[in-house]
Amino acid sequence: MPPPFVIIGASLTGGTAAATLRQEGFDGDVILIGAEVQPPYERPPLSKQYLRGEAPFEKALVRPAGFYEHNRIETRFSTRATGVDPIERTVTLDTGAHVRYDKLLIATGVRNRRPPIPGLDLPGVFDLRTLSDADALRREMAAGRRAVVVGMGFIGCEVAASLRQKGVDVVSVDPSPAPLFRILGADVGRVLAAVHQDHGVHALFEDVVMRFEGGARVERVITASGRRLDCDFAVVGVGVEPVLDFLAGSGIDTANGILVDEYCRTTFEDVYAAGDVANHYHPVFHKQMRVEHWQNAMQQGAAAARSMLGKEQPYDAIHWFWSDQYDVNLQYAGFHDNWDQIVVRGRLEDRTFVAFYLNQGRIDAVVGINRAKDVRRAMPLIKSRDIVDPRQLADEAIDLRSLAPD
Amino acid sequence: MNTRFVTVARTADIKPGELAAFDVEGVRIAVANANGRFFAIDDTCTHEQCSLTEEGTLDGTVVTCGCHGAQFDVTTGRVLAPPALEPVKSYPLRIEQGAVAIEI
After folding, report:
1. Residue of A45, A224, A38, A222 whose CA lies nearest to A125
2. pTM for this one?
3. Which of A19, A138, A364, A374 is 20 to 30 Å from the Cα of B27, by its Cα?
4. CATH value at residue B10
5. Do the beta carbons of residue B24 and residue B51 sit within 8 Å?
6. Mean pLDDT in chain A?
7. Which of A48, A49, A325, A331 should one mutate to test binding to chain B, selecting the residue with the greatest count of B CBs within 10 A?
């Protein structure tokens, strides 16, 4: 009997990978190791429906509670991996145990960045990643209380929206000129800023939090421009970093995540990585990328499982995600970190449009605000890597489907 | 149980690759034209109650919900991709003299 397939990270990626191994007919031993106490769950509701108390936690589970036992998947929750030895083929756990593996999938994801801001550790200063983070934040959310949201990335924007929906007074602080500035750019970002302002967020841009002040708990936030923002609690969402420390000395190559090819293979045989932690080669874009999307977490977990079984197929999905804020449904498809042209289909001021982010005439990514159909229809255009005519993209009379290659 | 067929549209009104929604006795039902074959399912996604017709896209016999990407097989209502976990209800449908009728 060979050693088991081991999955580190009982997350959407890890849970999906374990389930996929069984779906694909693997009947060997599978061990799923996770740092959190819960079975794998999905994180999107933690800033939205679950945070607002509109959906129970059980709705977020990747598989029903009894699934793992029923499918002979051994689970070790509340357990961290502290080391990997890809020569000896062992994983070391924080319990001191060594687990041998035949094949290993690393799906440890990301952790929230903790910038060195004085007072960050004061009670009442929260961040959001886990169920317990969401539970702690929920206890603070009462109408009329005052919150400062630090960082208007996706987490900051969604938390600000949920807080407003529960009647919490919200001031947000972000160093950029607009929310999600690095992804959206100034013009599209300003649309989202206006959405938050219309819903009562006092949104401050181009300012930086210098410290959190208070006695037993946070009482105010001090910014670089000298603002003193009195608050009852604060939520910090200033980015993430991949969880890699336990790989130090393993020899597994890392650079902004674990480097993997389009089959989720690391630089060591029989060691795979997927999800937020995987800096993966994308065969459509011909470059490495690391993303933190729900759909990637799920689909790449499944792809890695198939690779572990020798059924590998290039993982070439066009990345896609959504963000719900108030009545705005934002969707993103593709991958971009810069652009030389933005083409807008629809009118920004109507808050229903899709923006195409182009480089050298090719669409790298699209962002839709309340325009799901056009986002979906743009995905084949992204995948084709064809040069497109910006005038056709902007022309609402032209169905995007007619521009796609056959 | 009494069921009957209710005529909701002419086949010519729903183009291939399109969905159209109809209120049939208080239920919002989507009719899909999957390249000439017609199918009827609930229009409301079981994930977050979005309308499959208003924001969804139809590709062959697969409808993708516009809000969060859940996919259903329009021929059966079966879930093909999460985040939806529950199927949408599927309704018997018949075409007579160019009219689409749904059994309810």
Report:
1. A222
2. 0.91
3. A374
4. 2.102.10.10
5. no
6. 96
7. A331
